[in-house]
Amino acid sequence: MNLRRLIYSSHAMPNFNYQDLKEIMDVSNKNNRLSGLTGILCYCDCMFLQVLEGNCEVVSRTYHRIATDKRHHTPTLIECVPIESRIFGNWSMHMIRLIDLNPETVKRLILQYSDTTSFKPNLMTPYQCLEFSKKVARLQLQIQKSSEEE
Ligand code: FAD
To answer: How confident is the model at residue 1 (pLDDT cuts 50, 70, 90)?
Structure first.
């Protein structure tokens, strides 16, 4: 089974800013599209939660490259497992800033999937991280859809 899913969390560096986020998004979309990787990157309260899906070796190589990036620190590997199919197959890397979503809904989701009121993916299980990411992705899609309808 060569298809893998890797989940990790990390802390943004103190001087991390929106421009950094945009640069990461641009390079990730370009690289991941070329190498057949898909996934989601959630950012909130100076923490990242990323899900990467793709070929086992490509996922591993990309994670090792990301882990040495100086824009964040203390990457925590949460899960790396073989999978039958992708969940985020439509996205080469979908970046979601939780601050852009409805704060009450985000708060409810954090409470649903963790034992804290703040976003601490490093303390969440693989299942919790994945379900959280799926729900957050669905939320953003809904926002996108309703803004297109307006
Ligand atoms: P180069 O761009 O040549 O950079 C060389 C080194 O400097 C690398 O170690 C790089 O990590 C680091 N670097 C690059 N720009 C900066 C900067 N502005 N400040 C400090 N250090 C810098 N890349 C992907 O391809 N796919 C992803 O899904 C992905 N997700 C990421 C998620 C997070 C949270 C972060 C922080 C980075 C992510 N990246 C991702 C970016 C990745 O770490 C590499 O920067 C990128 O892949 C380019 O790699 P490169 O070897 O061509 O490095």
So the answer is: low
